[in-house]
Design brief:
Number of domains: 2
Order of helices and strands: EHEHEHEHHEHHEHEHEEHEEEEH
InterPro entries: CobW-likC_sf, CobW-like_C, CobW/HypB/UreG_nucleotide-bd, P-loop_NTPase, Zinc-reg_GTPase_activator
Number of helices: 11
Bound molecules: guanosine-5'-triphosphate
Structural class: alpha/beta
GO molecular function: hydrolase activity; nucleotide binding
Number of strands: 13
Distance between the termini: 43 Å
Strand order of the largest sheet: 3-2-4-1-5-6-7
CATH topology of the largest domain: Rossmann fold
Helix content: 25-40%
Catalytic activity: GTP + H2O = GDP + phosphate + H(+)
Organism: Solitalea canadensis (strain ATCC 29591 / DSM 3403 / JCM 21819 / LMG 8368 / NBRC 15130 / NCIMB 12057 / USAM 9D)
CATH architecture of the largest domain: 3-Layer(aba) Sandwich
Largest sheet: 7 strands, parallel
CATH superfamily of the largest domain: P-loop containing nucleotide triphosphate hydrolases
Keywords: Chaperone, Hydrolase, Nucleotide-binding
């Protein structure tokens, strides 16, 4: 076993198929010691009876959804887990249908001790192919779950036609053009190893940014992402300050920020990622000799104003452009 231990967060609306997927994951990974954090809404535990346990441990946070009980309590559970169960291969957190996945993910990004033991591998969102459109109209959280996630599994494809599936995929792509999209029946799929997506590693963020649509993405009349590409180097201090202020003032509007950036005077790419109010900066690969150093950044959130973001970014340009 190696630290940090990878963590997969499962999200998706009530009845989308999270428990079915979880059972698949447990069955397919009998060689691994998985820990499942099952989060319930309400007093009575129902899901834990439905989950096939195998030899794995099952914990529960039973007094409400993770985001409602806030990350403090969730952090305590994680701290206890690290202390009491030091040897395991993977942690899976199944959050309730209405939980905000960013509140769950933030626990793994913001806390240094947790980060040294646990590494967020990916946030996976289960989508009920049959009911997605109705749900998106009625429930804001459903869109946020899709916008925030790294992998989107369009489940229950047995209940819709080919044409309907094409439409569902189109809608999902409009909300999140940066996620891996997979189709499934009862959470069953063989396309990828869901426990090893490495979505938060610098390598994968860099790779994911090779195909990078510039501009704004609008779904259901709401702007869900704003992406920018520019060659002028950024000033690291100015950028950090701007982003901090932005997240403090307007944090609620930003679901997630990902960027591969060129900071003046630094030889390597820098990966910026933010989840809720926490922004992290990690060095990536070196810029190639003689190549234009192009920065790419995407802001994912709710009704984000392109003009203000563009102005903010320009204000962070380095005065020493050609260092
Ligand atoms: N036809 C069909 N039914 C499915 C599929 N996936 C799940 N179901 C059924 O849908 C219901 C809900 O599935 P679950 O896996 O419990 O969904 P969940 O997201 O864990 O549900 P909550 O715990 O309520 O949030 C169950 O009756 C499943 O058998 C699928 O791909 N096709």
């Amino acid at each position: 076993m190696q630290y940090p231990i990878p963590v997969t967060v499962l999200t998706g609306f009530l009845g989308a198929g999270k428990t079915s997927l979880l059972n698949n994951l447990i069955r397919k990974n009998t060689d691994k010691k998985l820990i499942v954090l099952e989060n319930e809404f309400g007093e009575v535990s129902i899901d834990s009876d439905l989950v096939f346990k195998g030899d794995n441990e099952l914990f529960e946070i039973s007094n409400g959804c993770i985001c409602c009980s806030m990350s403090g309590e969730f952090n305590d559970v994680l701290a206890q887990l690290i202390k009491d169960v030091p040897v395991f291969d993977h942690l899976v957190v199944e959050s309730t249908g209405i939980a905000d996945p960013s509140a769950v993910a933030a626990a793994f990004i913001g806390d240094q001790i947790i980060q040294s033991h646990l590494r967020l591998d990916a946030v996976i969102c289960l989508v009920d192919a049959q009911n997605m459109e109705t749900l998106l109209k009625e429930r804001e959280e459903a869109r946020k779950q899709i916008a925030f996630s790294d992998v989107i599994i369009i489940n229950k494809t047995d209940l819709i036609t080919e044409e309907q599936l094409t439409r569902v995929v189109e809608i999902v792509k409009k909300i999140n053009n940066y996620a891996k999209i997979i189709t499934a029946v009862k959470g069953e799929q063989d396309e990828v190893n869901l426990l090893n997506m490495e979505a938060y590693t610098t390598k994968m963020v860099e790779q994911g940014f090779k195909f990078f649509p510039i501009g704004q993405q609008v779904a259901h009349d709401e702007v869900v992402s704003q992406s920018f590409v520019f060659d002028h180097p950024l000033d690291l201090l100015k950028f950090r300050h701007w982003l901090n202020v932005l997240l403090v003032i307007q944090g609620q509007s930003f679901y997630r920020i990902k960027g591969v950036l060129n900071f003046a005077g630094l030889d390597e790419r820098h990966i910026v990622q933010s989840v809720m109010n926490n922004a992290t900066y990690t060095p990536g690969s070196d810029w190639e000799e003689g190549m234009v150093r192009t920065s790419k950044i995407v802001f994912i959130g709710k009704n984000l104003r392109r003009d203000l973001l563009e102005k903010g970014l320009k204000n962070c340009y380095s005065d020493f452009a050609f260092l």
